[in-house]
C-alpha cells in the first residue's frame, strides 16, 4: 500500500483499451468521497491536485491523508500533480513523496516546452516518479488560468512524436477539442487527429477537460488511445449542488458532518459514472508493478 507511480498502470490501460479516471480533489472530504467510490468498484484512480490545491492544503498534509486512506481502504493511492509549471515546485513535492507529476509547458514555445519537460523527466525518473506533459494548448479555465479559444491550439501528431522522443515522458496530454471547465456547446472532438496520434505513439494519452464530454465521445477516445480521463468541474458542481440543496431544505443546519456528507454522496455518483465510462471497474492492483 502507499503512494505509487502511474507508469505501468497507464501503459496497461492503454494496451487493454480502458482508462484510469483522474479526479481533482481539494480536501479530506473530496479525497474520501473519491476513494470510497473507487474502493466500492475496485477501480484504480488518480487523485489530482493543482498548484492552488496545494495552497489550500499543503502537500505533506495531502500525502499524509493519502497514506492513511491507502491503509484504510487497502488500496495503493496515486497522488498526481496536475498542471504544475515550475521545476523546483515539482522537485520539492517529489522529494516529499509524490510519484506522479504533470509538467505543463504547453503555453511555451515548442523548444522551451521540450527543455523544461526534459529537465523534469530526468529528475522524476531518477525518483521513480512518472511524468505527463502537454502538447497543444487546451482552452477554458483551469486553476487560476483562463485560455480563450483564440489562443488554444490542437496537438500536431508529427510534433508529438518528436516531443515524446526528446523528452522521455511517460504519458502525453493531447489537445483534441476538449476544454477545461464548463462547455457552452457540445465539444467537437477531433477523432481523426487522436487516431493519428494514437497510431504514431504507443505511450498512454491523456484527455483533459473530461467534464461535460458526452459519454460516447469518452468511450470513443479510449478506443483510440486515451488511457487517463481527467474530471474536475463536474465533481465540484455535484458537491456544491447537494450542499446548496441541503441548506435550502435545512436553513438552520450547521453541522458539517451532515452537509458535507450530502456533497460527498453527490460527488460519489459522478465518480461511479466515470468509472463505468472508463471501464476501470475491477482493475485495482493491475499494473502497480511491471
Ligand atoms: P474539467 O474540470 O473540465 O473536468 O477538467 C479537469 C482537468 O482536465 C484537470 O486537468
From TrEMBL:
Zn(2+) 1 binds at residues 83, 180, 208. Zn(2+) 2 binds at residues 104, 134. Its EC number is 4.1.2.40. Dihydroxyacetone phosphate binds at residues 181, 209-211, 230-233. It is an enzyme of class 4 (lyase). Gene3D superfamilies: Aldolase class I. PROSITE patterns: ALDOLASE_CLASS_II_1, ALDOLASE_CLASS_II_2. Its cofactor is Zn(2+). One of its GO terms (biological process) is carbohydrate metabolic process. The keyword Zinc applies. This is tagatose-bisphosphate aldolase. It comes from Pluralibacter gergoviae. The lineage of its organism: Bacteria, Pseudomonadati, Pseudomonadota, Gammaproteobacteria, Enterobacterales.
Amino acid at each position: 500500500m502507499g503512494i505509487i507511480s502511474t507508469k505501468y498502470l497507464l501503459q496497461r490501460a492503454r494496451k487493454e483499451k480502458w482508462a484510469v479516471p483522474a479526479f481533482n480533489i481539494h480536501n479530506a472530504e473530496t479525497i474520501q468521497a473519491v476513494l470510497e467510490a473507487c474502493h466500492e468498484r475496485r477501480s484504480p484512480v488518480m487523485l489530482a491536485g493543482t498548484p492552488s490545491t496545494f495552497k489550500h492544503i499543503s502537500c505533506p498534509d495531502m500525502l499524509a491523508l493519502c497514506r492513511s486512506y491507502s491503509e484504510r481502504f487497502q488500496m495503493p493511492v496515486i497522488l498526481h500533480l496536475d498542471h504544475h509549471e515550475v521545476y523546483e515546485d515539482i522537485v520539492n513535492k517529489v522529494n516529499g513523496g509524490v510519484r506522479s507529476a504533470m509538467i505543463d509547458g504547453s503555453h511555451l514555445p515548442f523548444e522551451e516546452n521540450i527543455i523544461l519537460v526534459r529537465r523534469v523527466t530526468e529528475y522524476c525518473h531518477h525518483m521513480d516518479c512518472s511524468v505527463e506533459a502537454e502538447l497543444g494548448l487546451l482552452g477554458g479555465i483551469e486553476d487560476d488560468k483562463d485560455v480563450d479559444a483564440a489562443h488554444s491550439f490542437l496537438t500536431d501528431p508529427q510534433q508529438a512524436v518528436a516531443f515524446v522522443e526528446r523528452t522521455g515522458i511517460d504519458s502525453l496530454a493531447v489537445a483534441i477539442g476538449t476544454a477545461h471547465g464548463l462547455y457552452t456547446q457540445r465539444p467537437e472532438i477531433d477523432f481523426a487527429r487522436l487516431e493519428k496520434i494514437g497510431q504514431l505513439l504507443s505511450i498512454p494519452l491523456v484527455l483533459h477537460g473530461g467534464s461535460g464530454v458526452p459519454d460516447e465521445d469518452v468511450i470513443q477516445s479510449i478506443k483510440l488511445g486515451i488511457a487517463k480521463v481527467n474530471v474536475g468541474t463536474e465533481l465540484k458542481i455535484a458537491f456544491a449542488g447537494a450542499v446548496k440543496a441541503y441548506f435550502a431544505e435545512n436553513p438552520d443546519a450547521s453541522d458539517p458532518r451532515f452537509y458535507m456528507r450530502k456533497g460527498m454522496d453527490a460527488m460519489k455518483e459522478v465518480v461511479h459514472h466515470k468509472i463505468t465510462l472508463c471501464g476501470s471497474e475491477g482493475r485495482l492492483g493491475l499494473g502497480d508493478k511491471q
